[in-house]
Specification:
Layout: H1 5-10, H2 16-26, H3 45-48, H4 50-63, H5 68-106, H6 113-144, E1 165-170, H7 182-188, E2 192-193, H8 194-201, E3 207-208, H9 210-228, E4 233-236, E5 240-242, H10 243-246, H11 252-257, E6 270-272, H12 277-281, E7 288-289, E8 294-303, E9 322-332, H13 337-355, E10 359-363, E11 375-383, E12 388-397, H14 401-406, E13 409-410, E14 423-431, H15 432-442, E15 448-450, E16 464-466, H16 474-478
Parallel strand pairs: 4-8, 7-13
Antiparallel strand pairs: 1-10, 2-3, 5-6, 8-9, 9-14, 10-11, 11-12, 12-14, 15-16
Length: 484
């Protein structure tokens, strides 16, 4: 629709919430509460050029998201620029009137009542217009932040994950042949206590025990050593973030679907992290960076609500509210990010190969990408007890989508040059709970579970975990696998 927010403004006489509600109603959008500071993620200059604006529209079509949102942002931007220009002229007129009054006072001449009335009205008009301009800019930034990153040309176009493209496969898949699923195996080696965990922490709570703890710590240490050998800087991140900072790195949907709030004090609200990507992405906020690339190995405990999981997703420790993860995070020059994307994927593959876990690499369809990702690979490992592939790695290139919001720029701005934002990428190396599940199914025997050779230097000399319980609890036997 071509009707502008400026036309709406003319009939609203300065009510900020009326402006917001009218624009939302005009374009069929919902008003939402702002979780924190929202700055542009999409480059607004792309929408000021007709050719590049069409690229943004096409990207939205590929995402199966609103194209009308792009037109709304263009309209709001034109409106805001006119408001800003009109305000500049109004302030200049105000200064002229104030100068005229000052000159008359200096000359000890009477100041006409009409001139004083004009000054008073001009000040009142400007104050009102400033409120409207400020609110319009907020709405512009808010709507701009809802437009997803530009989808890369190599991403398959579909809104159905069944059309994800398998890029490659590695390793041999074991036949079912009386193999057990991971949750039964973890119980049988006495590696966790889900009942006590649920009693203490609620649904999906768990205690890792003995073999479970050994495997968890071995994966952490092996993963850190793996990235250290590849010249990544090791980072152990904070477990929580300030609301304002989290609002600059997490999607709006994350606040309801993933994040746990840990403070009720509105002046000091904090959220538990869902991935070390969140605090690491903010590590250099508001900085100009030289000496790129920077490669970080993020180690953290992560906390997620994981709403909506059911069936085999909630078996054992595959999909839980608390887990450890080693994350790859890279910051590059814009022209180097796609090369880095392939490197992060290569690292993830080599890690899984070292563990001897069969996998397939999948190019995720456009409709399943999150807002930040221009392209994403998933690496899905084979679970022989379930006879299915399950995601263990997610590897994304977010280009400059996050860095714009966090104001992380490359080098130093030269006179006459536009700011150049760094590109930011992230990839799982090892989410330990899921990796344990996959190891259990791939290394099970009739007597217990073997320890992968790559982990044996970190398992206190233990190379085999014998079954302590011959059969899993009866209620587990009744659970039947659900299709992915």
């Amino acid at each position: 629709k071509q009707k502008t927010a400026y036309e709406i403004r003319l009939s609203l006489v300065g009510s900020e919430m009326c402006i917001r509600d009218s624009i939302n109603a005009e374009y069929g959008l919902l008003t939402f509460a702002e979780p924190g500071r929202r700055e542009e993620q999409m480059d607004i200059n792309l929408l000021r050029n007709p050719e590049t604006a069409e690229l943004v529209r096409e990207s939205q079509r590929r995402r199966y998201k609103s194209v009308a949102l792009v037109d709304l942002v263009i309209s709001l931007d034109q409106t805001w620029k006119k408001m800003y220009s009109d305000l500049s002229h109004a302030r200049a007129e105000l200064n002229k009137i104030q100068s005229e009054i000052t000159e008359k006072k200096k000359a000890k001449q009477p100041v006409p009542e009409e001139l004083l009335a004009t000054l008073k009205k001009k000040k009142s008009d400007i104050e009102r217009e400033e409120r409207i301009e400020t609110e319009t800019k907020k709405i512009l930034d808010e709507k701009l932040s809802l437009i997803g990153n530009i989808v890369h040309s190599s991403v398959p176009i579909s809104n159905d994950e069944a059309n994800n493209v398998i890029v490659k496969t590695w390793g041999e898949r074991k036949p079912k042949d009386k193999l057990r699923p991971h949750h039964e195996l973890l119980y049988m080696i006495d590696g966790y206590d889900p009942e006590a965990g649920a009693n203490v922490a609620g649904h999906r709570g768990y205690f890792l025990k003995g073999p479970g703890v050994i495997l968890n710590q071995a994966l952490i240490n092996f993963a850190l050593k793996f990235l250290y050998d590849r010249e990544f800087t090791l980072l152990q991140t904070p477990y929580f973030m300030n609301k304002e900072v989290m609002g600059r790195t997490a999607q709006l949907s994350d606040f309801d679907e993933q994040l746990y709030k840990v403070s009720s004090d509105s002046a000091d609200e904090k959220y538990l992290i869902a991935t070390s990507e969140q605090p690491i992405s903010a590590l250099h906020m508001n900085q100009w960076l030289e000496h790129l690339p920077r490669k970080y190995a993020g180690y953290s405990t992560n906390f997620r609500k994981e709403a909506g999981g059911h069936g085999r997703d909630v078996w054992g420790i595959f999909r839980v509210h608390q887990f450890e993860k080693i994350e790859q995070f890279a910051i590059t020059e814009p022209e180097k990010s796609w090369e880095m994307h392939e490197l992060l994927l290569k690292n993830a593959e080599e890690f899984l190969q070292a563990l001897g876990l069969p996998y397939q690499v999948v190019n995720i369809v456009s409709g399943e990408l999150n807002d930040a990702a221009a392209k994403k690979y998933d690496v899905e490992c084979f679970f022989p007890g379930m006879q299915d592939y399950r995601e263990l790695v997610s590897c994304s290139n977010c280009t400059d989508y996050q860095s714009r919001k966090l104001e992380i720029r490359s080098g130093f701005k030269k006179e006459g040059e536009a700011k150049k934002y760094v590109h930011m990428l992230n990839s799982t190396l090892c989410a330990t709970s899921r990796a344990i599940c996959c190891i259990l199914e791939n290394y099970q025997t009739e007597e217990g579970v073997k320890v992968p050779e790559a982990l044996q230097p970190y398992t206190f000399g233990v190379t085999f975990f014998p079954f302590k319980h011959k059969e899993p609890p009866k209620e587990k036997e009744k659970e039947k696998p659900q299709k992915k």
